[in-house]
Q: What sequence folds into this?
């Protein structure tokens, strides 16, 4: 750089020097703030999924080695929400081997996840009492990271295999196909939830159940503001409805 500037003589040298002084801090700043979305670059195996709104994978294919990571990027967290369904392994599950979390970005220089939020307590991969886990994520990235087992434990190929399905659903005007799948997930999630293991889906942009019909207080199937299920109106009320029709 010094030899190039020395060859330029006269007043034209100063604009070039000013340009170099202006660009140098920007180049340094770019190096300091470099971000790797999928996490540490030292991992020998990583997958970053972008521009996909639904799909699935098996851990044996997406996370074939250790350490390894699979990351799904939300195209716009202001407009979309990520929903995940994890079908847990039936055997040979190793606790603390898989981590599931969402975050905003990863800084390579400091090896820090910004805005990180763990889903390990929601997934509970080795909890056989709930064979399926559901969760929703609203940040920029959702990652599943497979780490090395604890000391003294060995792993074989194919052990602890599990399946993961994902949906990226719009917060406004979601598609009918996405809502059909998401409503089925929500129904299964609520059916298996308990006080110690609540459903991981908090809210959906879809209307999954039809609201009950609006009835008057005089209807025998409507009592104290509650619509009674499996209830048939009295013969007197049926006659009134027939006359009105």
A:
């Amino acid at each position: 750089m010094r030899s190039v500037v020395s060859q330029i003589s006269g007043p034209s040298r100063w604009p070039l020097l000013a340009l170099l002084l202006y660009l140098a801090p920007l180049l340094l700043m770019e190096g300091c703030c470099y971000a790797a979305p999928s996490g540490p670059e030292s991992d020998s195996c990583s997958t970053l999924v972008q521009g996909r709104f639904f799909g699935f994978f098996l851990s044996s294919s997406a996370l074939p080695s250790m350490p390894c990571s699979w990351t799904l990027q939300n195209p716009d967290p202001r407009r979309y929400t990520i929903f995940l369904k994890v079908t847990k392994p039936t055997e040979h599950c190793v606790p603390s081997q898989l981590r599931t979390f969402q975050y905003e970005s990863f800084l390579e220089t400091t090896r820090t996840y910004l805005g990180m939020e763990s889903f390990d307590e929601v997934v509970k991969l080795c909890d056989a009492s709930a064979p399926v886990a559901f969760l929703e994520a609203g940040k920029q990235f959702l990652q599943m990271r497979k780490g090395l087992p604890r000391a003294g434990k060995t792993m074989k190929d194919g052990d602890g295999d599990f399946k993961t399905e994902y949906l990226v659903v719009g917060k406004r005007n979601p598609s009918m196909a996405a809502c059909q799948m998401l409503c089925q997930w929500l129904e299964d999630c609520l059916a298996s939830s308990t006080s110690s293991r609540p459903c991981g889906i908090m809210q959906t942009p879809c209307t999954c159940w039809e609201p009950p019909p609006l009835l008057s207080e005089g209807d025998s199937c409507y009592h104290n503001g509650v619509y009674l299920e499996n209830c048939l109106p009295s013969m007197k009320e049926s006659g009134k409805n027939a006359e009105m029709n």
Residues 46-108+118-176 form a domain with the Jelly Rolls fold (CATH 2.60.120.290). The longest helix spans residues 13-32. The chain has a mean pLDDT of 76. The radius of gyration is 28 Å.
